[in-house]
Specification:
Elements (H helix, E strand, L loop, with lengths): L6 H14 L12 H8 L3 H13 L3 E4 L3 E4 L3 H27 L4 H13 L1
Antiparallel strand pairs: 1-2
Length: about 120
């Protein structure tokens, strides 16, 4: 936790990464706020803020008196969000640049195929 971005965002993204890579499957219990705070050596309020971002997004849910759990469908929602972000940040600018260079869809597909096969 040390890349200049707010720590609570890094906590949320770390949990998202674990959900995406399958190390924290749907319906799995998430570490408690105190466990997250202790592990990352941060204030529990900061850990709570990161977890609450995921609760608000429907990625995690609370079971009163038991803890936080990964929601059903969380991984697919995260993948959809990440793909949309990828399209916005990378594909749209690529398409605009390719149009500006007079490239066809096939030209771009061929270039991408070559890169993916490397």
């Amino acid at each position: 936790m040390d890349d200049g971005r707010p720590i609570f965002l890094q906590i949320a993204e770390s949990l998202e990464g674990q959900i995406l890579d399958g190390s924290m499957p749907e319906e799995a219990q998430v570490p408690s706020i105190n466990e997250l705070a202790h592990f990352h050596r941060i204030n529990p309020a900061t850990a709570l803020k990161g977890v609450n971002l995921l609760v608000d997004a429907g990625i995690l849910y609370k079971r009163r008196g038991i803890g936080m759990f990964v929601a059903e469908g969380a991984r697919s929602r995260l993948l959809a969000d990440r793909r949309a972000e990828f399209a916005e940040l990378h594909v749209r600018p690529l398409a605009e640049r390719a149009r500006g260079l007079g490239m066809t869809v096939k030209d771009v597909q061929d270039m991408i195929r070559k890169e993916m096969e490397r």
